Amino acid sequence: MNDGYEFAYTSAVVAEHGSGTVLLSNSLPVRAEAYSADTTRAYVEGLLPEGAERERIAAELAVDPGDGYALIEILGRDCAGAVSFHPQGGEPEAGPAGGSLPRIALSGDRCKIGMVRDGIEGAWEVPPTGMPSTHIVKPETGELPEIVTNEMFCTAVFRQSGLLAAKSSIEAIDGRPCLVSPRFDLVWDGRKPRRLHQETFCQALGIAPPGLAAGGEDEDAPGFAEASGLLRAIGLKAEIPTLVHAAFGNYVLGNGDAHGKNFALLFRDGEVRLAPFYDVTSTVVYDASLEAGMVLPDDFDLTTYLLGLRRVAEECGTDFDVFHIQASCALKYVCDAIEVVAERAEEEGWHAPVIDRIFEVAQDRAGRCAERLLRWNSLDM
Q1: Which secondary structure element, helix H or strand E, spans residue 95, and what is its range?
Q2: Tell me: the pLDDT tens digits for 22-69?
């Protein structure tokens, strides 16, 4: 096992950009001194797969799944954001498409494949060596039934409710249903893709992904306090209500996996902004609520629930009455969106039984949440 990452900026980069400039990560600003392994680890591990998917890929590559350095050496030619890894002194070499499945570093515990499409509706191809994939493809694997439709539905609800979420569609590839999403960290200069940089909230805050935090610390981090603090620190205070909106969307849909690895920052034209939301699924329908990260309280006791919401408001640095308004609006937007997207799924032919289960979960949760919000002022908090 080798996770003793070492990272340092070259003297030329320090001279050109100056100390304190954020190039790679908010947690790794430019400086002359090298960063320790512990500091570097959160960023690098945040690029790599987790859990069973990491075990599967490591077995295919014949490396130790705990050896993140070996994994990034092999997978790091194509990563999320404008970063790639290659041997010192070497440059990525362009080559023809084809061959085995692409080696791409993508975080998360689900099977994800980086692909390139030949034209708008043409054949799928493996990215040429040294070139980024243009689409992320998530195939149905059977481990979580109808997970492709689940994510398609939940992501569409986010978009319909007014949140910026990853564009997606369901396509059959080699006879298997797949969720297909164009990469939002790419722009096109003519026919040539150009990478945009991005990093997750975990990377920006220097927090290792779940299961990798030293001593089990920060397993559920970042929470609302850390995420709101990050947005304030980088000049995006106005986006904190967006986090609240997303939190109520996740709550109603039953998505308990709202960890900071599923929230990201996108760098473009010299500015940083919230990246589109992604990896939005209803975990409750699989009896896997998880409740990790920025998850609203789910307690049947009214007083306990409202106290939990007050805590969230305080962590977001938002006045309780203002938070109440934000919460009520977010709940309405999400509930309206669920109705619209459910009808659209029927009309467009991608409806599946999992949508009915999510709809039932959403009705129950929305009803309970609305009742509690209506009684907001009935208790002396």
Answers
A1: none
A2: 999 999 999 999 998 888 988 999 999 988 899 999 999 999 998 988
Question: Which residue from 185, 149, 184, 183 is spatially nearest to 169, judged by alpha carbons?
Answer: 149
Q: Is 323 helix (H, G, I), strand (E, B) or coil?
A: helix
Flag whether the pTM goes above 0.85: yes
104-117 burial, b at 16+ Cβ within 10 Å, e below that, comes to: bbbbbbbbbbbbbb
Are the beta carbons of 113 and 137 closer than 8 angstroms? yes
Which residues have C-beta within 8 Å of that of residue 83, sequence separation ≥ 6? 24, 47, 197
Q: Which of 3, 109, 257, 279 is catalytic?
A: 257
Residues 6+ away with beta carbon under 8 Å from 222: 201, 202, 205, 207, 230, 260, 293, 294
- For 377, residues 6+ apart whose C-beta sits below 8 A from its C-beta are none
Q: Is the pLDDT of residue 348 over 90?
A: yes
CA distance 295 to 61: 35
Q: End-to-end CA distance of the chain: give it in Å, rounded.
A: 51
Count CB-CB contacts under 10 A for residue 373: 18
Helix (H) or strand (E) holding 153: helix 147-160
Residue 301 a catalytic site member: no
Token pair listed for 288? 């896997």
Contact (Cβ atoms closer than 8 angstroms) between residue 152 and residue 280: no
Residue 341, C-beta contacts closer than 8 angstroms, at least 6 positions apart: 153, 156, 157, 160
Tokens of 163: 């949140």
Helix ranges (H only) for the chain are 11-17, 37-45, 51-61, 68-75, 147-160, 201-205, 224-233, 240-253, 302-315, 320-348, 353-374
Written as one string, the DSSP assignment of 44-82 is HHTTSB-HHHHHHHHHHHTS-TT-HHHHHHHHTTSBSSS
Radius of gyration, alpha carbons of the chain: 21
Strand partners, 18: none
Q: Which of 332, 370, 366, 361 is nearest to 150 (CA)?
A: 361
Domains of the chain in sequence order: 46-187 (no CATH), 197-378 (1.10.1070)
Q: Kindly state the tokens that stand for 143.
A: 């481990």
